[in-house]
Every structure is written in C-alpha cells, then in structure tokens.
Design brief:
26 strands; Vanillyl-alcohol Oxidase, Chain A, domain 3; eight-stranded antiparallel sheet
C-alpha cells in the first residue's frame, strides 16, 4: 500500500475517532492538577511550579522554598508583610497557571509562592450600579455565571473560562471587539485592591484601594504582569444581560482577506476570523447583539476545550511526531483538512439548544456563548479523559505565538504570510492542524500603560513543539519568519501571557513613555523588587537589561529562545543553518538547506 494511501486511511480513522469523542466524551474527565508541587510532609515547602502545559519556553524548572494559601484579604496582607520583613522574593500563583512565560516564577530557591486558589469568592453584586466585586482567584466561569444570575453580563471576555480574574488582568487577556470600550477585560475595572510591600510604619505591607480617581495607579495596575504586588479584589462594570446571534461564514478563498480583516471588525460587534492559510480558507464569525425577544438558547462548548480520551490524544500526538520525523508534509496536509472539516461541520461546538446544532444562526444569552472550557469541570476519572494539553499524559505539546498588529499594518502582514505560503504551499498545514490562525480584534480604549497602544488585530498561532528541544520542526524557517514579520517588520506587541522568549525581546521599548510611567509606579509600590524576578526584570528592561530576553546557546533558535545569528543556533548537524528569510530578508531563520535548494530550483 502506497504511503499516501496509508496516510489518508490513518487520517480518516483519526477523523472518525476524534469526531465521535469530541462530540460525546464530556461526562468524565480528570481536571488539571495543581501547578504547585511540594515534597515536604506538610506539602507547603520545597516546591516547584509549572504552567498548565507542563513546560516553560526555556524548559527550566521553577523552584520555591514555600507556598502559602491565604483565604482572606487579611491573611494575604499578613503573608506579604512577613515576606517583606524577611526580604523574600514573592510571586503570585493562580489555580491553573495558564500563562506560557515564566511570570509566576520567584527569583531563587528561597522564593515564596502566594497561591490565590482559595481567594475565590464573589463578594458583592450591585444591580443598581451594575458592578460585581470578586476576589482575585475567582475564575472567569464563576464571574460570568454569578453575573448572569443577577441579569448582568461581562460583555467581552477571553474564550477560555479557566482564567482567574487576577491572572487575566495581569496579562491583559481579551476577547474580540472594536466596539464600545473594546474587548480587554481590564477596561471594565472600576476599582481594585492590591497588597504591596511597605516599610515598618505600615507593618511591612500596604493595602491600596485604587479606582478611577487614581488614573496613574489604575493605568499601572490594570495590566501589571504581577510585579506590583498581589491583587486581592477587583470590581468590574457590567451590562444588562443580552442575547447575541452567531453565524460562521466559511469562504473557500483568502485573496481579499487583507481588506476584509480591516473592515470586518467594524461591521460586527463580536467579530473574529479563523484563517486556514494552507487551504486558503477563511471562517468569518458574524456575531452581534440581538433583541432579547429573539428565540434561542444556544450554547458554545468549543471542541478544542472539551475533554478527550488519553488514548486518542496519544494516537494523534504519535501520528504528528511520525510526520515530523519523516518530514511527511503531505500527511499533515491531509489531516489538517480533516480537522478543519470536523470543526466546521460541528459549528466549532455551537449548539442551538445546548445539545444539538441544527443550523445558523445560533442565538443565545451572552453568558452561554462568550467562553467555554468543559474539560475543567468534571470529577477525577483517573486520567482516562483530560484537557487536550494535559502534560500528565501524552498529549498536545505546542508553541504559541500571539502578536497584535496595528490595524493600519494588518493587510500588509497578511499579504506577506500569503507570499510565504505561496512559496511553500504545504508549509502551513501544521498551523491548520491547530485550528489555523485565530484573528481577534483589540481596541485601545483605556490608559493601561502595558495594554494595547493602538487598535489592532491579535494573531493567535499554535503549532507543533518537539519533545526534543534540539530537533528542528518541519518547515521550521517559515514559522520563524512569520514570527519575525509580526514582531519586527510590523512592530507587533506580544500577548503578555503567551509566546516564546523572542517575542519579548525589546518589546518594552515599543511602549515608550507608558513603559516609563509604569516603572515609576513599580518603584513606588515595590522599591526592593520583591515581586520581580530575573525573567520580569529582563522583560521590563530593569537593571540595564534593555528588554533583552534572548538566551544564546546551541540550538536556541529552535525553541524561540533567540533569533539565530550563527549556524549553531540552529541544527547544522541535521542540515539546518541560519539564513535570511524568503520574503522578509532581514529575518534570520533556521533553514533546511535541502528545502532551500529545492525551493530555489522550483522557482
């Protein structure tokens, strides 16, 4: 049997197997484990922390001497006071730690982790002022649900409901909209309470209450990367609960995507775009408010956020590893088309009544449509089914590049990606395997110093990561060039909670005076840098680092720890050398010389 026939047959098997389980396997699941693990008898000392994916960009292990789990604001103040008095480095850890970079890593093994796991209560809901006050560890799911019970809504949010309020504020997490105040959750904060280090006159900790009458401090604390202290409570402005109507319009061409991307976000309030570049296919999400009298009780339960059988995850991962090792681009392209077909046929997990999808439009209340994440909520089943990225089993393991490109530059960026795709038609099939490129709209509305600096489109791209950090990926150079196009040529801003190291290299310099204003507040709040770490100092350009986050060593470009400047930053022993980009000549990427020679010959 020929190789192509074998791959197609395997792809169809995976398609059928995955489709059935994604649709029906939502009853049992093993929720993610606590990201903090301690080896002491008390389970509160000699600890390590990771993220929910099980690995940081540099694959380092973050250690801490102790972890504490405060259950009230008073306990939190006491914890920070004790840490300050002892001059300990401190970091905040959330329930699941979904940030990819090392934001929660304390500096040094004597560091203290402060978990917000039990700071998880909704404290006040005021229908008259349409505000909700929650503790920092409340999840997005709880916030949305509690607001809805009072007939209120957080209008815009990220699509994953597993984030905690403190975590999504710290990283500037957002949904998709150019309307109103925009899609960033921090733009709806009207007050927050934060505990910071202080001197003996304040008993070594200070509880600061910050609202709109403190514009400078609010601009700093809305997006803080966790370096100012510990947020204890947040008050957000809500709206009356409303309905929305969603239709996915899938077009089999992307020739005018550059123009459409600029206009589409202004036409629809909750618009987003999913682009499948290798298939030249685009799914436009037409998503708007409708009158509450319009019938419908739709629900969004995104397929990629549902529990999946561990056995199936292992099969899918092994297949992709095999395709990578054998450089089987055709196999990836076949499976990418099947994955895309599955998502489109099942309306991405939308249902008209919470059970079945019977056709567009899907109409329902905002709280049932704005976010999902059902793999989080089932009782433990012994790892039989898990979230698709659970590191305790053989599962998805990926890099993620998320960069906001200014609206004025979006068309040119898309056209450059299309040129790359046209030079290497199979090179982006690996992106389509991870549901293509998600394009969300973000708006500059607040004065958050580390928020978006102008209206933009956020490009979210996930792609295969090898378990061997020294092994080049299939079409390594193409993805590196796209990354450098977004970050360097088009001066995009990285999402603070995602990305590889190179995305943050010099990023703080793009914020200009806003970065200076943020650092002034940081100096007032935490002059000893107790909530800073080596990583955050590099990101923020503190201590003469100038925002340099690169780590130069053999093979560093393969994991995004550096942009290659010499061949040994790639994998010359495997035929990958540092060369200019194909479309963006200033890029430096790890190129397979056999691939480069073939491309040159064909053109």
């Amino acid at each position: 049997m020929g190789k192509g026939v074998w791959v197609l047959g395997l792809g169809v098997f995976i398609f059928r197997f995955q489709f059935l389980f994604l649709l029906f396997c939502t009853v049992g699941c093993s929720p993610p484990e606590d990201p903090i693990k301690c080896s002491s008898p008390s389970q509160t000392s000699n600890c390590t922390i990771s993220n929910s994916y099980g690995a940081f960009p540099d694959r380092s292990v973050c250690r801490a001497a102790d972890v504490v789990y405060p259950t009230s604001e008073e306990e939190l103040v006491a914890v920070v006071a004790n840490g300050t008095m002892r001059k300990r480095k401190m970091k905040v850890a959330t329930l699941s730690s979904h940030s990819i970079p090392k934001l929660m890593c304390p500096h040094g093994e004597d560091g203290l982790l402060i978990s917000t796991k039990y700071l998880n209560r909704t404290l006040k809901l005021e229908p008259t002022t349409m505000t909700i006050t929650v503790e920092t560890g409340v999840t997005l799911r709880q916030l949305i649900d509690d607001a809805a019970k009072a007939g209120l809504a957080l209008p815009y949010s990220p699509y994953w409901w597993g984030f905690t309020v403190g975590g999504l504020l710290a990283t500037g997490a957002h949904g998709s909209s150019l309307w109103g105040k925009g899609s960033a959750v921090h733009d709806y904060v009207v007050e927050l309470r934060i505990v910071t280090p202080s001197g003996p006159n304040d008993n070594y900790a200070k509880l600061r209450v910050i609202d709109t009458t403190n514009p400078d401090e609010l601009s700093a604390t809305r997006v803080s990367l966790g370096v100012l202290g510990v947020i204890s409570q947040v008050t957000l402005r809500l709206e009356p609960l409303f309905k929305r109507s969603i239709t996915y319009l899938v077009l089999e061409k992307d020739t005018d995507l550059g123009d459409q991307a600029i206009e589409f976000g202004n036409r629809h309030e909750f618009a987003d775009i999913t682009w499948y570049p290798s298939q030249r296919k685009v799914a436009y999400r037409i998503d708007d408010r409708v009158n509450s009298t319009v019938s419908g009780n739709g629900r969004y339960d995104f397929l990629g956020f549902r529990a999946m059988p561990s056995l199936e995850l292992a099969t899918i991962r092994s297949t992709e590893e095999s395709q990578e090792y054998t450089r089987n681009a055709e196999g990836k392209c076949v499976n990418a088309k099947l994955t895309t077909s599955t998502l489109i046929a099942s309306a991405y997990g939308l249902t008209n009544d919470g059970i079945r999808f019977t056709g567009y439009p899907v109409v329902g209340y905002n709280n049932r449509l704005e976010a999902s994440g059902t793999c989080l909520e089932s009782p433990e089943d012994g790892l039989t089914t898990v979230c698709p990225w659970d590191p305790r089993v053989k599962s998805e393991f990926f890099h993620q590049t998320a960069v906001s490109v200014a609206l004025s530059k979006v068309k040119s960026f898309i056209q450059d990606v299309q040129k790359l795709r046209d030079l290497e038609p199979k090179s982006l099939c690996g992106l389509d395997l991870y549901n293509g490129i998600l394009m969300r709209y973000v708006k500059k509305t607040s004065n958050a110093y580390l928020g978006k600096q102008e209206d933009a489109v956020d490009f979210d791209i996930s792609y295969y990561r090898s378990s061997d950090p020294m092994r080049p990926r299939l079409y390594e150079d193409i993805m590196e060039e796209i990354e450098q196009l977004a970050l360097v040529k088009y001066e995009g801003l990285p999402h603070w909670g995602k990305n590889r190291n190179i995305a943050f290299n010099g990023a703080i310099n793009k914020y200009g005076r806003n970065a200076e204003a943020f650092l002034k507040v940081k100096q007032r709040y935490d002059p000893q840098g107790l909530f800073s770490s080596e990583w955050t100092d590099k990101v923020l350009g503190i201590q003469n680092t100038n925002g340099v986050t690169s780590i130069l060593k053999e093979g560093c470009a393969l994991e995004g720890l550096c942009v290659c400047s010499q061949d040994n930053h790639c994998a010359p022993h495997q035929g990958f050398f540092c060369r200019p980009g194909k479309v963006y000549q200033d890029a430096r990427v790890c190129t397979s010389m056999s691939t480069r020679s073939l491309t040159t010959t064909n053109n």
